[in-house]
From TrEMBL:
<keyword id="KW-0472">Membrane</keyword>
<feature type="transmembrane region" description="Helical">
    <location>
        <begin position="138"/>
        <end position="156"/>
    </location>
</feature>
<dbReference type="GO" id="GO:0016020">
    <property type="term" value="C:membrane"/>
</dbReference>
<feature type="transmembrane region" description="Helical">
    <location>
        <begin position="168"/>
        <end position="193"/>
    </location>
</feature>
<dbReference type="InterPro" id="IPR022301">
    <property type="entry name" value="Integral_membrane_YjbE"/>
</dbReference>
<feature type="transmembrane region" description="Helical">
    <location>
        <begin position="47"/>
        <end position="67"/>
    </location>
</feature>
<dbReference type="InterPro" id="IPR005496">
    <property type="entry name" value="Integral_membrane_TerC"/>
</dbReference>
<keyword id="KW-1133">Transmembrane helix</keyword>
<protein>
    <submittedName>
        <fullName>TerC family protein</fullName>
    </submittedName>
</protein>
<keyword id="KW-0812">Transmembrane</keyword>
<dbReference type="Pfam" id="PF03741">
    <property type="entry name" value="TerC"/>
</dbReference>
<feature type="transmembrane region" description="Helical">
    <location>
        <begin position="12"/>
        <end position="35"/>
    </location>
</feature>
<feature type="transmembrane region" description="Helical">
    <location>
        <begin position="213"/>
        <end position="235"/>
    </location>
</feature>
<comment type="similarity">
    <text>Belongs to the TerC family.</text>
</comment>
């Protein structure tokens, strides 16, 4: 239980909770739409069972993703995707949920919630796997704790979270930069860049320890994270500035 006194554990847990809340707002909308036609006495059951099924499925997906991140170049691809997700967070698109069908049958509503959550969870899975990647044997525990804490906040406090984000846009900006921060760390710890015995044509950012974990210098660690965060901020500001004139002319 020594890991409970580790600052790194609690920092990673905080990152996972923030990621879930920032990227999970649509999931709350899906749950509400899927259960809107249920009788009042079944609505709470639909929300609880649908959310529970979505949590279990997401834990499995994230555990699978964390295993895949040990494959060379997948962290690199994941880092690029995270940067794109972070930028998209800073330049929100209009999204509709008209294709989410409500049902007056409990199991149909539960199935809708689980399937929709699966389709919409790609960004969450990549981001959370990246945030938990360096926790070693405790990474899955981090993921489960983060989901258990954040999902109720999303489901029952989604309106409050949305209002806070609207009132304090800095929350969204910092959230996007957090994804860039994680992406920078993912990129330099990709096995292709830290395995000294392979991929000799690539730059080396560190080495692998006996447990297969990336070991990089303190300077590389901080520089990569900071550059990732700044890159998302810069790209987000750039595309946002391009979008405003287009909207004005539209």
């Amino acid at each position: 239980m020594d890991f409970l006194t580790s600052p790194a554990f609690w920092v990673a847990l905080g990152q996972i909770i923030i990621i879930d809340i920032l990227l999970g707002g649509d999931n709350a909308v899906v749950i509400a739409l899927a259960c809107r036609k249920l009788p009042p006495e079944q609505r709470k059951k639909g929300i609880i069972f649908g959310t529970a099924g979505a949590i279990v499925l997401r834990v499995i997906l994230i555990a699978f993703a964390m295993t895949l991140l040990m494959v060379p170049f997948l962290k690199f691809v994941g880092a690029i995707l995270l940067i794109w997700i972070g930028v998209k967070l800073l330049v929100p698109e209009e999204e509709g949920h008209g294709d989410i069908q409500g049902s007056d049958k409990l199991f149909a509503a539960i199935k809708t919630i689980i399937v929709a959550d699966l389709v919409m969870s790609v960004d969450n899975v990549i981001a959370i796997a990246g945030a938990a990647q360096n926790a070693g044997e405790h990474s899955l525990l981090l993921v489960i704790l983060g989901l258990l804490i954040s999902i109720p906040i999303i489901v029952w406090g989604s309106q409050l979270v949305i209002k806070l984000m609207e009132r304090f846009p800095l929350i969204i900006t910092l959230g996007g930069m957090l994804l860039g921060w994680i992406a920078g760390g993912m990129l330099v710890t990709d096995p292709a860049f830290v395995n000294p015995d392979k991929w000799t044509f690539l730059p080396k950012f560190g080495t692998m320890d006996e447990k297969g974990m990336a070991v990089i210098s303190t300077t590389t660690y901080w520089v990569s994270h900071i550059l990732g965060a700044l890159l998302v901020l810069a790209l987000g500001k750039f595309f946002a500035s391009r979008k405003k004139p287009a909207a004005a002319h539209g």
